[in-house]
Amino acid sequence: MNNRYGTLASWVYNLDKPVGRSFGDIEYYRGRLADCAGSILEPAVGNGRFFVPMLEAGFDISGFDPSNEMLGYCRRACAERSLDEGRISHGTFETFAYDRRFAAIVVPLGSFQLITDMAVAKAVLRRFFDHLAPGGRLMIDLDAIGGFLGEGGRVRSWTTWDGDLMTLTDARVSTDYVAQTTVTHLRYELWKDTKLVDSELELFSLRWWGVEEFAMALRETGFVDVVASGDYRYGQAPATGCETISVEARRPE
After folding, report:
1. Residue 58: how many other CB atoms lie within 10 Å
2. Domain Methyltransferase: where (predicted)?
3. Judgement on whether residues 84 and 48 belong to the same structural domain of the protein
């Protein structure tokens, strides 16, 4: 159940974050990658929220995701726009492998924080490094720590395309300040004519990173020219109150 993104979870994600919905990241990375001459990889491509607009903009981008349900939404979005569905595949952070190297790897909107084990996270950074061409760039978004410290307990709702009601209730199970992780129960429910017709429970686990901690992990992996930026303003150091930290680093030539 942990970070699985099953049927209802993927449905809600697609309702809440449809293809093209930007949090500032799509415009930011289009600008940062405007001079990118090679291919780009997006791990954890999800429903294609970020991937599809980048592909439409002419970028040579590929992606993978561990959730078949999420990939289904991404493939449909590509098919509806006559885009190449073959650019996406099933894969995980820990096991993905390509027979080519990329000019850039982009992990937007905090997806890297789904990796909660430090040793695994460092191994994934090494896998990213190995899949970058010399001079290639790694770009990762991290959520600021403030977003992890609330108590949860929210109830959110969406109306489906058929007019049914989808609800999501979150409940914080634990916060480990030593391991820098949170675990939340996410209860998804589908209601039709006031009757509950389907439900799904998922464990949602995340890890937060300190800015310097993450920079040190990148340098330990072999990356250079590490730059952390706050709220999609390149070169402006993250400050108290910023919501997103974008970290960019380069594999040496």
Report:
1. 8
2. 40-136
3. yes
Q: Which residues of 84-108 are buried (b: 16+ CB within 10 A; e: fewer)?
A: eeebbeebebeebeeeebbbbbbbb
Residues 82 and 70 grouped into a single domain: yes
Entry pTM:
0.96
Amino acid sitting at position 186: L
Asked whether residue 111 falls in the same domain as residue 185, the answer is: no
Helices 211-221 and 118-130: angle between axes, nearest 10 degrees = 50
State the Cα–Cα distance between residues 127 and 125, nearest whole angstrom.
5
Max alpha carbon distance in the chain (Å)? 61
Residue-by-residue pLDDT tens, the chain, 253 positions: 578 899 999 999 999 999 999 999 999 999 999 999 999 999 999 999 999 999 999 999 999 999 999 999 999 999 999 999 999 999 999 999 999 999 999 999 999 999 999 999 999 999 999 999 999 999 999 999 988 887 677 899 999 999 999 999 999 999 999 999 999 999 999 999 999 999 999 999 999 999 999 999 999 999 999 999 999 999 999 999 999 999 999 999 9
Strand duo 181-192 + 88-90: pairing:
unpaired
Within the chain, strands assigned E span 40-42, 61-65, 88-90, 102-107, 132-143, 152-159, 165-176, 181-192, 195-207, 224-230, 244-250
